[in-house]
From TrEMBL:
<protein>
    <submittedName>
        <fullName>Guanylate kinase</fullName>
    </submittedName>
</protein>
<dbReference type="GO" id="GO:0004385">
    <property type="term" value="F:GMP kinase activity"/>
</dbReference>
<dbReference type="InterPro" id="IPR027417">
    <property type="entry name" value="P-loop_NTPase"/>
</dbReference>
<feature type="domain" description="Guanylate kinase-like">
    <location>
        <begin position="6"/>
        <end position="184"/>
    </location>
</feature>
<keyword id="KW-0808">Transferase</keyword>
<keyword id="KW-0418">Kinase</keyword>
<dbReference type="InterPro" id="IPR008144">
    <property type="entry name" value="Guanylate_kin-like_dom"/>
</dbReference>
<comment type="function">
    <text>Essential for recycling GMP and indirectly, cGMP.</text>
</comment>
<comment type="similarity">
    <text>Belongs to the guanylate kinase family.</text>
</comment>
<dbReference type="GO" id="GO:0005829">
    <property type="term" value="C:cytosol"/>
</dbReference>
<dbReference type="Pfam" id="PF00625">
    <property type="entry name" value="Guanylate_kin"/>
</dbReference>
<dbReference type="InterPro" id="IPR008145">
    <property type="entry name" value="GK/Ca_channel_bsu"/>
</dbReference>
Length: 193
């Protein structure tokens, strides 16, 4: 039998749409590991180095070997080749949380191995509320909402419209149903894109 193709679910969308929540669910429910990426942004309360991110400073950030890296709302973020390899050693199906620019790069570089999942919400005002409830500092929320990246990530990039799955994550129980359907179709090999 042919080896099953290794795949990465690239979870993307605007801040607060629930990307990390979805990746945590996939890990808990389906043992799908998340690729841990690198960032220069400060930790939020409760975040742990090596679990949520590899937290870097401006110098150590450049010590890694990135498949792609971006600037997002004033900080740097990058996903390493080693991170992808480490996750693929654990499982054939893994996930990663990226901004839309990173998602486009993953789609270009990995082709069919990258399953793009774009998250949206019905009303963007809900995003501000979610960030506040998550405990983000008000100043951080304001500067993030003003950033070009925030505005850009509200819309699925043209290059991904044909292949991306889209889930509107307003009601968490409905999102779970959609995620369960997605994982079943990927595992059964009935997925089309
Ligand atoms: N369907 C939902 N209904 C209500 N709250 C939600 C829902 N999904 C996620 N949340 C909450 O919204 C907040 C933001 O979610 P999360 O951190 O997963 O977003 P994100 O897209 O990863 O954000 P960022 O890009 O800023 O890291 C969290 O507090 C999370 O618990
Ligand atoms: N292109 C990449 N985007 C990344 C990476 N790691 C995280 N992210 C995205 O950055 C923003 C901000 O994240 P936050 O944790 O500060 O809220 C968000 O869209 C993440 O998905 C990466 O390595 N490359």
């Amino acid at each position: 039998m042919e080896d099953e193709m290794k795949r990465v679910i690239v979870i993307t969308g605007a801040t607060g749409t629930g990307k990390t929540t979805v990746s945590t669910y996939l890990k808990k429910q389906y043992q799908i590991p998340r690729i841990i990426t690198h960032t220069t942004r400060p930790k939020r309360p409760g975040e742990r180095d090596g679990v949520d991110y590899y937290f870097e400073d401006a110098t150590t950030f450049d010590h890694n070997h990135y498949l792609e890296d971006v600037a997002y709302a004033g900080y740097r973020y990058g996903s390493s080749y080693e991170g992808l390899e480490r996750a693929f050693q654990k499982a054939d199906l893994v996930s990663i949380v990226l901004d839309t620019k990173g998602a486009e790069t993953y789609a270009e570089r990995l082709g069919e191995q990258a399953v793009i999942l774009f998250l949206t919400v019905g009303k963007t005002t809900v995003l501000h509320e979610r960030l506040k409830e998550r405990g983000d500092q008000i100043e951080m929320i304001k500067s993030r909402i003003k950033s070009d990246e925030y505005e850009r990530d509200l819309t699925l990039p043209d290059s991904l419209t044909k292949t991306a799955r889209v889930i509107q994550n307003d009601d968490w129980s409905q999102t779970q149903v959609r995620l369960d359907q997605l994982i079943n179709s990927l595992r059964l090999g009935t997925s089309t894109a």
